[in-house]
Design a protein that fits this description.
By secondary structure, the chain is mainly α. Helices cover 66% and strands 0% of the residues.
């Protein structure tokens, strides 16, 4: 009984530590300068950075979803995001009551984006279809991407990066190992025409 309890605590501790490493990794990548410059043009604001974090969190969540034993890690990763957003709001000087309201929006955005992105990829008949669905999502939610051509560039990036992430071996990944591909961030002119094979 005691041995089982200790094993459960160890598993939870390892999941928390691994989720923190994953979160730091995806946040670092989401804050890369090229997302705030042409051709992506995401606004370098709290909202813009938050949306980019959600995009990359979704990629990691999907990457882990292949294995049932990573459910705890996926939940911890989302909880790490919530904790980080709460801390960031308080550091910005927002009071307790306002933080509570803002965190409800954060939670709703997290669940909403994960569902929207998942549906875009699950119901895919082609990459052009996925890119069109993601373009619509980005136009609605990401500041600076109200125009279709601009939103389409980030959609093309997300498709390329999802492919790259899916090639990383989940079971052998260790904190410190890369997940995201820098080459996926390079602009592909064919994305504007709906060709994301580049």
């Amino acid at each position: 009984m005691i041995g089982k309890l200790l094993a459960q605590r160890k598993t939870k501790r390892q999941a928390r530590q691994k989720s923190l490493h994953l979160y730091q990794l995806l946040v670092t990548h989401a804050r890369s300068n090229y997302f705030y410059l042409p051709p992506y043009n995401v606004e370098d604001t709290v909202e813009g950075r938050f949306e980019l974090i959600l995009i990359h969190l979704f990629m990691v969540d999907e990457w882990l979803s292949e294995f049932d034993n990573y459910i705890l890690l996926r939940r911890n990763l989302q909880e790490t995001l919530i904790t980080d957003m709460d801390r960031s709001l308080r550091e910005m000087g927002i009071g307790d009551m306002s933080v509570g309201k803002q965190m409800k929006h954060v939670g709703a955005a997290l669940l909403g984006r994960l569902q929207s992105y998942r549906l875009a990829f699950e119901n895919a008949n082609s990459e052009i279809y996925v890119q069109a669905k993601l373009t619509d999502i980005f136009k609605r939610n990401v500041k600076g991407l109200e125009e279709p051509d601009t939103a389409m560039q980030l959609a093309g990036y997300m498709i390329r990066q999802m492919k790259a992430v899916s090639c990383v071996e989940v079971l052998t990944w260790q904190p410190g190992d890369p997940i995201f591909s820098e080459s996926a961030c390079q602009w592909h002119s064919g994305d504007i025409e709906g060709n994301t094979d580049g």
